[in-house]
Design goal:
InterPro entries: GSP17M-like_dom. This is General stress protein 17M-like domain-containing protein. This protein is of the alpha+beta class and 107 residues long. The chain contains 6 helices and 3 strands, in the order βαβαααααβ. The protein has one domain. α5 packs across α6. The termini are close together. The mean pLDDT is 82.
């Protein structure tokens, strides 16, 4: 697993290419921004993945409807195998306007 944190959306594509160079495919790269719409746009621009039923499971994904934005992001990040302490660190980065990319090999 690799994690990259970038400070601007224009740097996301470069970070994705760096992860590709390490052998990750687009389907193994997840992009997180605090703003839901920015996340959606970045995923479309870079052809990266969303955390969904496959990663979270049905009930966890359904629970996101009732969660705050951060709780939703935290659940998604942790579903990729990130510890609660690391997830809290990434929360601080996201709240500061940064973008977190997590690359995880398909099992």
């Amino acid at each position: 697993m690799d994690v990259k944190i970038v400070d601007h959306s224009e740097k996301v594509e470069r970070a994705v290419h760096e992860l590709n160079a390490k052998g990750y495919t687009q389907s193994e790269i997840y992009v997180f921004a605090y703003d839901k719409y920015e996340t959606t746009d970045l995923k479309k621009e870079t052809s990266t993945q969303s955390v969904g039923l496959k990663e979270q499971g049905f009930f966890e994904a359904l629970s996101n409807v009732f969660r705050s934005r951060w709780e939703e992001i935290e659940a998604k990040i942790m579903s990729l195998g990130i510890s609660p302490n690391e997830a809290a660190r990434y929360e601080n980065e996201l709240e500061a306007g940064k973008i977190v990319l997590i690359a995880k090999r398909d099992d």
